[in-house]
Amino acid sequence: MSIHGFDELKARMEVFQGKLHDYINEQRSTLLQLLDSYKEDVENYRIKKDSINSQLNQLVEEERELTQEIRSIQEQTQQTNSKMEAYEIKKQQLTEERGILERDRWELKELLAKKQKEIQRHKESIKKQHLRDNPEVKVYEQLLGLKITTPKPDTLCFNFINVSENSSNAQCNFTLDLSSNGYKILDSSPKLSQAQSTELEQNLAITGDLPTFLKQVRSLLLDRMST
């Protein structure tokens, strides 16, 4: 090989070595970049892994707490159901007892009402008998031609005859109601005014003086007959 050929070969080798050196440097730089990127990715993955592990641990703890809470709720639900069943049984018992008490109260009310009616009838019977058996009333029956009848329960009809010298058929009457606590003139013939009836009723209720009451009624009835 000539010197000229050797120099050319040397020059070509230097060019090749330069290119090879540049290539190696480029590959080294690329490798370093890849290595740095890998390290960065590894660090990011590690951070993500730690975060995921932390979240996973938190989820596991939350799951444990939730499981415990569910178990507690189930136990409370069972206790609540047991209490509800007991309350329902108690409610049913109270309803039955209330029904019995309501029935007993109604029966007692009916019994009291019946007794009150019996007592009232007994009182009215005594009152009526007292009015009819009053000695002065007996005298009036004989002297004034007074007749006492019972047209219906709790009432007495007082009929005055021989009230006119001109007519033997002339008569006047009134009906006294004994069903209430006091006395009430139901009707009369001839008709007394409401004011007259009220005054007579009040006087009899206050004094209890039946003879005077009969005198006053007879006098008012005769006055009405003459007008």
UniProtKB/TrEMBL annotation:
GO terms for biological process: cell division; chromosome segregation. Residues 152-221 form the Chromosome segregation protein Spc25 C-terminal domain. It holds the Pfam family Spindle_Spc25. Belongs to the SPC25 family. It is found in: Nucleus; Chromosome, Centromere, Kinetochore. This is Kinetochore protein SPC25. Component of the NDC80 complex, which consists of NDC80, NUF2, SPC24 and SPC25. Gene3D superfamilies: Chromosome segregation protein Spc25.
